[in-house]
Amino acid sequence: MTMAIFHRVAFILEDDVCRELEALVPLDQRHQVVNAALRRELELLRQRQGEAAPDPAPRRRRRTSAPSR
Length: 69
What we know:
By secondary structure, the chain is mainly alpha-helical. It is built from 2 helices and no strands. The chain has a domain of 35 residues.
């Protein structure tokens, strides 16, 4: 049996989202709703990253002359 690990996080909700969450979801189920919504959003982000062309690695600037003192 695998034990779940929980993390407490703090984030800010917009007022209308917070009011609707409080009105529609019982207190003991809000974490489940938030987790499900975050999972869906993270999956969308992963899909978009896979579709987007990979960014080229940042290049370091080369010095063309010795630094002045």
